[in-house]
Amino acid sequence: MKFPALLWFGLLASLLAGSCTQKEPTRQNMLGGETSPYLLQHAENPVHWQPWGDEIWEMARRENKLVLISIGYSSCHWCHVMEAETFENDSVADLMNSRFINVKVDREERPDVDQVYMTAVQLMTGSGGWPLNVVVLPNGKPVYGGTYHTRERWLQVLEEISKRFESDPEKLSDYADRVAQGVAEVNLVPGPDKGGFREGVLETALTGWRTRWDQKWGGNSETQKFMLPPTLEFLMAYSHLSGDSGAGDHLELTLDRMALGGVFDQVGGGFYRYSTDPRWHIPHFEKMLYDNAQLLGVYAKAYSVYSKPEYKRVVEQIFAFLQRDMKAQDGGYYAALDADTEGEEGKFYLWQAGELEALLGEDFPLFAAYYGIRPELAWEKGRYVPFREGPDGDFARANDLSPGELQAHRERWRTLLMQRRSGRSFPGRDDKIITSWNALLISGLADAYEALGDSTYLKEARALYAFIAEHAQNGSRLRHSYKEGDTRSQGFLEDYAFMARAAFRLYQVSGEEEYLDQAEIWIQTLQDRFQDPDSPLFRYNEDSELIAPIVKTDDGVMPSPNTVLAELYLDLGHFFYRQEYLEKGKEMILALQDRFLQLPENHAGWGRLLLRYQYPFYEVAIAGEDAEILRAELAREFLPDALVVYTTQQSKLPLFEGRFDPGQTRIFVCQDHSCRLPVTEVGQAMSQMRGNPSPFP
C-alpha cells in the first residue's frame, strides 16, 4: 500500500493559521546516561532528546503532544550533517522542545523500531533511509515521515504538523490509522501455497531478473550498488546446480568488479557499505560488520567454485581488517566505523596525487596506472579512491611484469600507504557488539575454514562464539547488543536464528556436539517466543509495543531471520530424521514462493531453499577415526546440495547410528535417509552425488 502523494501533500497544505501555546514541562536532554555511541553523539544537543521507552507514550498522552522520533546510527554521514545543521541549532531546539516529545533511537540497538517506522515512511513517500525522522501521535501511529531535511524544511514541516495537530486532530488521526493499517498489511504473510512447489519457478524468476542485470559492471543496473550476500549466495548455488552459465558468469563478473572496485578498501581491506556509482568505484565510506562478515564467507565459497587467488586474497584481507580495526580487546567485534573523519566524509581513506607521488617516488607512475590515479577518475576536491579497472594478469602482461613482481610492488605500496594512513585521525568506531552480526561472522569464519583449510578461522569462530555466549547469553535468552554498562536485555528473532545457525555450522566443522545442543536450545526458545500465530513464519520481536507486528521476510544486505530459520529446519530435519522440522521448513518456503517469483533479488534466500526441491539433496555422514580429515577434504568442494557432518567416535545420533567402525573411516551418501553403500574416498562420494557412482568396495 502506497499513499498517494496528493493525499499527503494535501494534508499539509490545508493547515490553519495559529500556533501551539502549550506550556513546556521542565525537561532536559536525557541521552548522557546511554551507552550507544549514536545516542551519546546527541547528548549535548539543545534538543531535549529522550531514549526510547514506555514512559514517552504516557508522557505524550498526559501532555497531549506529538512525539518526534529520529532514528539513525553512529556511522551515518547524513545523520551527522543533519545534527550539525539542525539539531545543534538553538532556534530549532526551542521549537522541538516546546511542541514535541523528542526521541532518539539507535537503529542498531532497536532494529524493530527502525523496521516499523521505515516501513511507514516508505509507504508515505516511496523511499526511505537515514536519518529517519517520523512524527507520531501519542498512540505511536505516524503522521509524517522523511529522511534528511535542511534546517529550513525541517522548521517548516514541524510548524505545519503541530498546527494540524492543534486545529484538526481527527483528520490527522484518521490518516495515521491508515498508515498504521498499511504497515500491518505489509507484514501480513499468506499461508503456504496450497498448490505446492511450482514447476519452473526458479527459471521464471530468473528470466525477469536477468533484464535488470548490469552486463558490464555486475550487480543490478542501478545508480547506487549494494553488496547483497544472500543474492550472491543464491546465484552461486543456482548456477552450480543448474549449469546455467549465464547466471554463473554474472556472479563471477559481480564478484570480480566488487573486489577490483573502490567499494573494497584496496589499501586496508574490508568493504565499505555501498557504491555511489554503477562501477563500484566511489563508496559511501562507512564500514559495517554485518556485510563484511557475510562477504568473508561468500568469497571463501567463491574460491571453492572458481579457484581464483584473488578471491582467497579478499577473504584474507577482510579477516585482517576485522582483526585490526573491528575486534574488541577482550573479544567480540564492533558494529561499524564512521564514514566521516574530522567532519569530512572519507577523509581517512582518500589520497591526493601529489601526496602519493611524494610517498612512492619512482614507483608512482606504475601505482597510478594500477589504481586509476588520473584526473578523469578523481573524486571531490581532486582526491582519489584507489580502484582497479581489470584483473592483475592483464595489468602484469601490459606492463611486462611477472605475477610475483606485481605482487611485490603491491605489497610495498600497501605497506607505505598503511603507514601513512596510520598517522591520520581514525574514523569514529561504534563499539556496540551486536549478537546477530557477530553470529554472521561466526558462520563466515566457518565457511572460510572449510574453503581455505586454515585453522585460524575455526579458532577465531570458536573464540567468538564463546565470547557471545559469555556476554550476551543468559540461560536460553539472548540480548541483542552488548556493551559494558548497557542493561538492555531484549533479543530479537535475528539474534536467535543467526546464533542457531552459527552453532550448527560450528558443529558441522568441529564435530563437537555441545554446539549442536546449543542450536536446538535457540530454536526451541524462538519457537516459544516468536511464532506468528497467523502464519508459519516468526515475528521479529517478542513482545511488541509497536503499532504493528513485524514479520521480516526479505533478504537484503542481511538475510531474513525467517530464511535462516527455514534452512535450519531443513538441515536439522535431515540430520535428526525429524519430519516435523522438514514440514515446518517446507511450509515457510511455500509461503514465500510467490514473493521470490515477483522480486527474486529481494528474496534470494528463499530461492536458494527452493533449489532443494528442484534438485536432489544429500545427507553425507562421515564416520571413523579419520573422519575430520575426510570431512575437510570434502568441504573444499562447493556443495550447496548436501548436508555434510562427521564423527570420530561412536554416536547415537540418527545419521551416525551403527556406522562407526574403529577399523576404517567411511563416507555415507544418503538421500531422504536412504543411503548408498559406504565409500572410503572423497572422489567416490562425489561420484555418487553427481550421478556417476564408482564401483562400490
Share of helix among residues? 40-55%
How many helical stretches? Answer: 26
What integer value in Å does the Rg equal? 27 Å
Shape: globular
Short description:
The chain is an alpha+beta fold and 697 residues long. 50% of the residues lie in helices and 11% in strands.
Describe, in plain words, how this protein is organized in 3D.
By secondary structure, this protein is an alpha+beta fold. Among the domains are: 182 residues, 3-Layer(aba) Sandwich (Glutaredoxin), CATH 3.40.30; 124 residues, no CATH class; 75 residues, no CATH class; 72 residues, no CATH class. The chain has 26 helices and 23 strands. Strands 1-3-2-4-5 form a five-stranded mixed β-sheet. Strands 21-20-22-23 form a four-stranded mixed β-sheet, sandwiched between helices. Strand 4 and strand 5 form a beta hairpin. Helix 10 runs parallel beside helix 12 and helix 12 runs antiparallel to helix 13. The longest helix has 20 residues. The chain is globular and about 80 Å long.
What key phrases describe this protein's structure?
five-stranded mixed sheet, 50% helix, alpha+beta, single chain, Glutaredoxin, 697 residues
Give the SSE map.
Elements (H helix, E strand, L loop, with lengths): L4 H9 L23 H5 L7 E3 L3 H9 L2 E7 L4 H11 L2 H10 E7 L4 H15 L6 E5 L5 E5 L4 H17 L1 H18 L14 H10 L14 E2 L2 H14 L2 H16 L13 E2 L7 E2 L2 E2 H18 L2 H18 L9 E2 L2 E2 L2 E2 L5 E2 H8 L3 H8 L11 E2 L7 H7 L4 H19 L7 E2 L2 E2 H18 L2 H18 E2 L2 E2 L2 E2 L10 H18 L2 H18 L30 H16 L2 H20 L5 H11 L3 E6 L3 H9 L6 E6 L18 E6 L2 E2 L6 H8 L8
Parallel strand pairs: 1-3, 2-3, 20-21
Antiparallel strand pairs: 2-4, 4-5, 6-7, 7-8, 9-10, 10-15, 11-12, 13-14, 16-19, 17-18, 20-22, 22-23
Helix pairs in contact: 5-7, 6-8, 9-23, 10-11, 10-12, 10-24, 12-13, 12-18, 18-19, 18-20, 19-20, 20-21, 20-22, 22-23, 23-24
